Amino acid sequence: MEKILYITHEYPNVGGDTAFIETEMKYVSKKMDEVYVLSHGNINKECVAVPSNVHICYFNSEKNKLYTLLFLVKSLFNSCFWKEVRNIIVKKKKLCCLKEALLFLVQAEKEAKQIQKIITKNKIRLLYTFWFYRSTLACIIAKLKLGIDEINIFTRTHGFDLYELRNQNNYQAYKIQMTDYVKKIFFISKAGKEYYMKTFDSVQSNKYKLSYLGTENPTPLKQHTYEKTINLLSVSYVVPVKRIFLIVDSLVRCSKENISIKWTHIGGGSDFFTIKNLAEENLNNTSISFNFIGELPNQKVHEYYRTNDVDLFVNMSESEGLPVSMMEAMSFGVPVIATDVGGVREIVDSHSGWLLSKDLCNEEFVEVIKEWCNYSSEQKKQKSQNAYNKWNLYFNAEINYQTFSNELLKE
Prior knowledge:
Elements: E1 3-8, H1 18-31, E2 34-39, E3 54-58, H2 65-76, H3 79-90, H4 96-122, E4 126-129, H5 134-146, E5 152-157, H6 175-181, E6 184-187, H7 190-199, E7 208-210, E8 230-235, H8 244-256, E9 261-266, H9 272-283, E10 288-294, H10 298-307, E11 312-315, H11 324-331, E12 336-339, E13 353-356, H12 361-374, H13 377-394, H14 397-409
Parallel strand pairs: 1-2, 1-4, 2-3, 4-5, 5-6, 6-7, 8-9, 8-11, 9-10, 11-12, 12-13
């Protein structure tokens, strides 16, 4: 029997990484006899439906101080920690990274205990972490403690779990060491793969596999009626790295050009009310209308595309992996305007949308909008078709996840 332990952050809770995993799980579960999901989510939160052969369990949230202290002492005598200390010194990282590395290992040791139990109880030999982070190290620790060579560990890496600049200390813990023990690392973008090889390791490149995420859209492109008012959509967490404030600034600039835009944002986050207030202060009584919908389940996002005419999609992030939100937009024939960061240029090009420079994106956005306003209906339809074609060729879930699932089972 083919069994897999699949470790997630929030899945199957509504929100978080469920937006990415729900589709991937659909295809992985078809290849496996049993899927055991171990989630960092909350057992009491609302969950999405899961395939019948998917079994859900959650990490214990053990907060006993004595229990943590025991693991802390144990980790101080772990050779893995001292190897990491050497890496921190060699790479001239901040001293605070030593504390981060220790706490990272303490948490991984805690997680490893639960992972061991699941492996032993269910005789699992295939482990997969959706994020190349602490749980990946926990899987390695569990495998070493069990002493089972036949266990294969796979991981995926995206943005926060890859790029050093996404960490406040400009540090990614244990990456070099973990590479020695995983069988394969799946990168969601070419840019991510190249960054990893340059920053952490290029010797073991045979373990590195480009594996685009994907989205589903069984509906054909609908007939679109383009009005004078541009329907603009953004979908993301409202957190600093997404720089939603730059979208507000860009729209203020458009209002000064008397361009009529209806902006909708889907997504919640720590800066939600700050950004909403910023929009109210700067966009009320202008040619720009706006609507902050908040967080929506993935299916509701798709429903929004099906029931609303969306002309353009915008993203002004400071850093990205390769956003699924852009794949979704293009699957509905919506051209994308986005900053040229991370792997974005792998999905957005001059045919399917517009790339903006990271530092001048708010100024360049206005020029793109002016260009769009001067397009004929036929030109707009062609841009829409190009966006759909790019999605279908590279980011169609049916193709990408079937290939990915086969890779997990390949010896």
